[in-house]
Amino acid sequence: MAWMETYAWLKGNENQDLYQQLLDDAATMPARNAKRKKVVHPEDMPWEMSRQGILKHLFNEGMNTRIETVDAYMQIIPGGSRSGKHRHLAEECVYVLEGRGYDLHQDCDVEITDTYHWKPQDKVQRFDWEAGDVIYIPPNTIHQHFNADPDRPVRLISAINRIFKHCGLNDLEQLEDAPEYRPNTKLTAEKVAEYLRAKVAA
To answer: What's the DSSP call for residue 185?
Structure first.
């Protein structure tokens, strides 16, 4: 009989106010949101010299903005240079603000059982782009951006959904670093301008 499982579900003396915490969180959210930014000014957008390249974060979970589900950054690629190469489970959209270049994309075969495995396919595809274009990067695709102009920088806006991370799917792997990357480099407007004037050695 179904009631025989009474002996199982009656076990335990642990108490937690988890539902009350949800109510409290909902009640205090308006006050918290009033202190979060609805407009982010350029001076409040942090720079980062990352393994993926030179980034200026427009909005990110760590920036105390009202944006709940999307992270976005502007990426600057000096003339003739390239981004890092990476792969992540979330899809990504990239708007080309300035410059011209191309992407190399390599799809991966994925197996999800008790563990997660991925294997790159042999085929690598090239996609050319220029200012005004949008680049779509499918889930779990190895990708890299290349600046095709040796004299002018590329500026890209990347947007990615942060829900993947909160669902336990923050599968992000760096496969190659951007040429400009040096650990512990602190970027300033002046330093970024130097990178933009520099020519990448062939």
So the answer is: P
Q: Distance (Å, rounded) from C-alpha 101 to C-alpha 146? A: 5
> Which CATH number applies to 45-197?
2.60.120.10
Distances in Å between the Cα of 165 and the Cα atoms of 100, 115, 117, 192 are: 31, 17, 18, 30
Q: Which helix (H) or strand (E) holds 70?
A: strand 70-77
Specify the DSSP class assigned to residue 16: -
Per-residue pLDDT tens for 123-153? 999 999 999 999 999 999 999 999 999 999 9
Sorted by where each begins, the domain ranges of the chain are 45-197
CA distance 153 to 79: 5
**Contact at 8 Å (CB) between 44 and 65?**
no
176: three-class secondary structure by DSSP = strand
Q: Are 180 and 54 in contact (CB under 8 A)?
A: yes
User: Considering Cα of 96, then 99, then 102, then 105, what sign does the dihedral take?
Assistant: negative
Q: Which amino acid is at 21?
A: Q
Taking the whole predicted model, whether its pTM rises above 0.70 is answered as yes
